[in-house]
Amino acid sequence: MKRLLPLVITIGAAALVMGIGMAAQAKKGPSFAKEVHPLIKSNCLPCHLEENENPSGLAMDDYERLMKGGNHEKTVVAGKPKESNLYLKLLPNPPFGKQMARNRKKLSDEEVKIVYDWIEAGARKD
């Protein structure tokens, strides 16, 4: 029995470390560079390029400009998609203005979920 105790402790510790690693991976969420920004590039630009005037003053050329926001507060509230205008403007009947992408095909439910999940996971730049 005394010989089994170190083995049980080792197995338990390994399981704990693996569980913590998997939980951290699950919280990471979608990649900005690989999943979110390509959606922005194909659906929000050129209207939201820094060099172009738009009523919102929101430039989405890159992560830093997106996080800086525009004339409306709360473009991205990390961890809170339901308070983030970036997510809310993709839905029908947003809190102000029209649903985005204006004059273009709307994002699919899967694409909107990518944005939601990214914000919920902390809206990290990767």
Can you walk me through this structure?
Helix 2 (32-43) crosses helix 5 (109-120). Helices cover 47% and strands 0% of the residues. Residues 19-25 have low confidence and may be disordered. It contains 5 helices and no strands. It is an all-alpha fold and 126 residues long.
- Using the CA coordinates, give the radius of gyration: 20 Å
Strand content: under 5%
Helix content: 40-55%
Shape: globular
Secondary structural class: mainly alpha
Tell me the total number of β-strands.
0
Round the mean pLDDT to the nearest integer and report it.
Answer: 84
DSSP summary: helix tally: 5
Largest sheet descriptor: none
Q: Termini, distance in Å?
A: 48 Å
